[in-house]
Amino acid sequence: MGSDMMLDSDYDEKRLTPNDDHDNVAIISPDDADSMVDDADGPNEPALPLATDHNAMRDRFLPAYPEYETEAEAIHTWDITNWSKLPKRSHGPVFQCAGHPWRILFFPAGNQASESVSFYLEQGFENEKPPEDWYACAQFMLVLHNPNDPSIYIHHEASHRFTADEGDWGFTRFADKNRIFASKFDGSDRPLVENDCAKMTAYVRVLKDPTGVLWHNFVNYDSKKETGMVGLRNQGATCYLNSLLQSLYLTGAFRKAVYQIPTATDQIATSSSAYSLQRLFYRLQADPVAVSTHELTQSFGWDNRQIFEQQDVQELSRILMEKLETRMKGTEAENALPNMFVGKMKTYLRCINVDYESSRIEDFWDLQLNVSGCKSLDDSFRNYIEVETLEGENKYMAEGFGLQDAKKGVIFESFPQVLHLQLKRFEYDFQRDAMMKVNDRYEFPEVWDASPYLDPAADMSEPYVYHLHGVLVHSGDLNAGHYYSFLKPEKNGEFFRFDDDRVTRATKREAIDDNFGGDYAPNPVNGVQKGQNPYTRQWSTKRSNNAYMLVYIRESRLDQILPAGNDVQPPPHLPQRLAEERAAAERKRKEREEAHLYMTVNVATEAHYKAYQGVDLIPWGADETEPAAPKQYRLLRTMTVSELTEFACKQFDLEKDLVQPWIMVNRQNGTVRPDHPLIWDDMTLQEAADKFSTRTGGFRIFLEETTRDEDGAPIWPSEEPPPANGNMHLNPPQPVKPIIIFLKYFDVDKQLLRGVGHVYMKPWEKAQDLAPHILRMMQWEEGVPLELYEEIKQTYIERMKPKNTLVASEIQDGDIICFQRHLTEPEVTALRQTNPTACLDATAYYDFLVNRIFVTFTPKQWPPPNAAFQVRHEGAEKFSIALSKKDSYDAMAHKVAEHLSSVSSTTPIDPSHLRFTTVNAAKGTPRSPVKRQAATTVANILLGSGSGYGYNVTAATVQAPDQLCYEVLEMSLTDLEQRKNVRIVWLSEGITKEEPFEFALHKQSTFSDVLAAVAKRAGLPEEVWEQVRFYEAHGGKVYKVLSLGMGVVALNEYMTVYAERIPEEERNLLSQRSAAGKEGGRLVNCFHFEKEPSKSHGTPFIFVLREGEVFRETRERLSKRTGIKGKNLEKVRFAVVKGGQNYSRPVWLEDDDITTEKLGPDDHLGLEHPNRQRSNWVRYESLNIR
């Protein structure tokens, strides 16, 4: 029954709050299963007890739950009289059970179910409110019976956790009115309710609740309050991770070792798994609510795929241990993990008849134990160290003794202090061709002795007795399930259940016995021996919840592994940082609450303008880390302009009387320029924003700065009348205010555009009158020739006519004029030689800025396979540079080569020796090489734009739009394009070891040239070259043998080319038959497959057949050729596959078959066995922790 309440499914069981007169309930029509008449119909059922035989009634209809202990029982009968005159809501007398008051709640007319009567069991505190934490777990039965004939009755049973909030529970449709008032109740000769009277007997059994959560609904449950511990929140499918982390956290010595990793300099939790784990552990200690693992999984580098896909716990544990061990090197925690988790085992081969043994000792961090075929932990260990005898055809070749009978096995040299045992609950089922869960019963003890499985020569001075510390459980099946754990935090403490964000107390039975798996025990109420999988909703006789990982701690090291809580303290910086983060979060919360009182104000100064190297005046949307980015403040809307100016001056260390704020507005051409100085000191920011600011751009301020005159007074421009034009009879002209103009300088040599300041000019002055101001600002000598341009908008500038007035040029406040030195022809020629891609005038440079894109370049392979390029400083191989979308392939290559030459520790990089490859946006891996063509531009390459050319046209979501990989080639790209890329898989040790080689050979090369390249790479002496064979394979099957005269240009890129030394046996057989004047031995193509020939796998190979040889002997030679021996060879079936066709039916070979007679000229020999390289559950990427 577990923690579910026992209900009578035929009736509506419903809680009724004490303050409610009725509840809305679903209408469920009752059947007759509750009546005593129908119960008596069963031919094999014993006679029904009378309602007044209380003990018999209790034993028959309310049997005790064997898994729960009874605290007290009570039986109480209420004589109901004047039924029809009772009020709508009636109570029976109060009675006691287990020290708690109880009573029956009765609705004669039904509780919102007018056709039925309603009865409930209710706590009997009456007008007094129950204590806040009061509860009682009660199994109860309500029996309504005839006051004169106890054989006429109706009964219903239920179980419930009664609390102060849920103080009543029972049956809204206890009985149909027409039925109980009928003159003949269910075939008897009298009604159940007779003379307006009936009796109601309540049977109440209060159960002990050792865990405090029996039948708990967990509404407002507080793990910290109830257990002193908190859980971990599930991000999607991370329950397996939560179970493992809680197990490691409660292994105090492990937590202590993690705390000892130096992380004081780690600032970002998501970039360091060690720091994230420390933070997680500390929060499990200190936080009052469940903790999120989001930081930790981010530090692992996981995305949604890993978050919503359950991973292998053993693999995760091993990778995590490896990463932590690396971080612990050189610290006080060094070797802490191996000392805690590493044991040693010996694999041996011991000859029976001679004194010879071959053995090796290996470390293990955890053990995988078989569940299938084993009934207990000891069975699994006996299976693990089972000895295999090598005899007959499987004799062992002992060095110096020849073939010998031998014993092969594994024995343990030592077990670790903390023993992690992975139970193989998931196995591959060959019949179903799928992974399946093993739900067989498998027992494990609370205290276990490991000494029987140790080498007799092992050091046993300290007992190898282990205590169970943790049971990690999987509930469900392969496709739908849930993980949780039972852990014992203290040496002599109790078990707790850790189920994601909930922590509860648990009994030993719940932690151990209930997780053995196997068949369900019979239900004492209805005898059912089935249970329902809560995740698949399927019924089964076997439990779907069972242990998949056990954690044992050595008895003699319990105090060391589980130290007292005060002995494991976090590093001081952890509480401090987390307190600071909590304070910052609180500040943000408060800011959100008070957000309506504040407004965002962006403030820029002259320094920001001078630091800016782009179009327009200020980069208002730039990242705050950039030097030119304006500062953003949250200021009270009621702050005045005067207060704003004073505040800004303090922030930027300026003098208030030398500063004038300007409001910035959006112009129609898309630029943001100063519009009007804020000269009203008492105006509030809200008033200024409403009057001047644009809604979309926010409130933006530019602080204009000036200097002082000789008397120390600020220099501000004043209005002047324009000069007289000779028409004196007209009215004198009105004063006109000067125009504020911002100046930018385009440095041709540095290819740089930057702001230099601002000037005030009179409207009637000419463009050439700007020259003295520019020369003074730049500290240039007089006579330097200048070119002037007006920056009209971000995508358009126009050269100015020097003699036009500013009014004629339509110059107004906030306009930008760009200037540069005029270049002579010799200067242009010299610049072209040093920088062929340089912009020679501001127009060209603005075009570059409009089309500018920052591209990140990463080496395709690092370190590079050749020594053509090395960097002076680590990390310099990856960089970002600015390119124009209009740049040609050659211009891009030149810019990249220029940068690489500046960081290279070798010779300068030749642009013609660079090759580029596009990048997969999701994985960051190289995609396809970029072809060098005349019309190719950066936009074509990265964005797929242009006329029919692009690397991203059909895969816009796949290719990264701002990343490329590069290679520094040993030859020019032009030479490389005349070469063929040849990939060879070199089989250096039979077919058991593959080494991929890649060569760039001239397209006119033959396989003789490939042989020379392979020999050089593999270090083959020239005398064995003639023994090398090349063959082509496709789909895991040999296609054909390649001759040395074949040209590489004929290779199909979708084929795999293997190279190997022809086996000695094949060479000897062929030479012997040739010397005897016979035809050469017959070669057959072989391949591996699983179940059917279309499912090929592994490395295909060529094998020589002997004429007249029986297959028994052929199999022995195949064993030597493939390296498959012993038990593994016994699992392989051999078949003739006609023509090597995928859907040809295999013809299985028997030991006595003549191999050459069974195999036709074009047939292949197939080896049928499971694909061991296939990852569990077809995972395409292995689990990784960054």
UniProtKB/TrEMBL annotation:
The catalysed reaction is:
Thiol-dependent hydrolysis of ester, thioester, amide, peptide and isopeptide bonds formed by the C-terminal Gly of ubiquitin (a 76-residue protein attached to proteins as an intracellular targeting signal)
Q: What is its EC number?
A: 3.4.19.12
Per the record, GO CC terms? cytosol; nucleus
Ranges where the record places region Disordered:
1-25, 514-535
| All residue ranges annotated as the USP domain in the record | 230-555
Q: Where is the composition biased (Basic and acidic residues)?
A: 12-24
**Is Coiled coil a UniProt keyword of this protein?**
no
**Gene3D superfamilies in the record:** Apoptosis, Tumor Necrosis Factor Receptor Associated Protein 2, Chain A, Cysteine proteinases, Phosphatidylinositol 3-kinase Catalytic Subunit, Chain A, domain 1
The cross-references to InterPro entries, in alphabetical order and at most eight, read: MATH/TRAF_dom (IPR002083), Papain-like_cys_pep_sf (IPR038765), Peptidase_C19 (IPR050164), Peptidase_C19_UCH (IPR001394), TRAF-like (IPR008974), USP (IPR028889), USP7_ICP0-binding_dom (IPR024729), USP_C (IPR029346)
Which SMART domains has this protein been placed in? MATH
Q: A Gene Ontology molecular-function term?
A: cysteine-type deubiquitinase activity
The text of the family note is:
Belongs to the peptidase C19 family.
What this protein is called in its record is ubiquitinyl hydrolase 1
Where does this protein come from, organism-wise? Baudoinia panamericana (strain UAMH 10762)
